[in-house]
Design a protein that fits this description.
The chain is about 45% helix and about 5% strand. With about 180 residues, it is mainly alpha-helical. The chain has a domain at about 40-145. Strands 1-2 form a two-stranded antiparallel sheet. The longest helix is centred in the C-terminal third of the chain and has 16 residues, at about 130-145. The protein is globular.
């Protein structure tokens, strides 16, 4: 029998991850399960889930659509595309790794404001509102943290891998 290397030492454990955004600290799990990471970058078609999410929603009525999107912030993104986009996978990943209580506040701050809010509630929302570029930035940072390396390589070489190899001055004439 051949035994492969035991990769148990790759688990880092540790403390939950702080995600500061717009004056709010959201907490994410220390180590998400592998499928959470894989699902966020995989090529998954989710048309059936979109249909299920829209079950009972009158898509011709703007108020009904707003209520549905308010209850499920990623539904707005899903309505803009057929199936699951990379943007939706990023949002779902962030919402998967955030801890209970934090995910609900994050989702609430991604949703459109309620037109019936009083001025104080609206002002608090405006301070904490999360826009798409912020979600994508948080996603990228979490991916880098969880994977242990940057999600994008530097593009200092033609193939974009960032590796330029050793530099040699052999045969070069000295400046002077």
């Amino acid at each position: 029998m051949v035994q492969l290397r035991d990769y148990s030492d790759l688990r880092r454990g540790g403390e939950d991850v702080e995600v500061p955004l717009n004056g709010v600290i959201y907490m994410a799990m220390a180590e998400p399960p592998a499928d959470a990471l894989l699902d966020s970058v995989g090529q998954v078609s989710d048309a059936q889930a979109l249909a299920t999410a829209l079950d009972g929603v009158d898509i011709t009525d703007e108020k009904s659509l707003r209520a549905a999107v308010g209850a499920d912030p990623i539904l707005a993104v899903r309505l803009g595309v057929n199936g699951m986009s990379q943007t939706e996978r990023a949002i779902r990943f962030v919402q998967t790794v955030l801890l209970p209580g934090h995910v609900e506040r994050f989702a609430r701050n991604m949703a459109p404001p309620d037109p019936e809010w009083d001025a104080e509630t609206r002002a608090a929302y405006d301070r904490e509102k999360i826009i798409l570029p912020q979600v994508l930035g948080v996603y990228k940072s979490l991916q880098e943290h969880y994977s242990g390396h940057p999600t994008e390589a530097s593009s200092s070489s033609p193939d974009g891998d960032g590796a330029t190899g050793p530099t040699s001055t052999a045969g070069a004439q000295a400046a002077g």
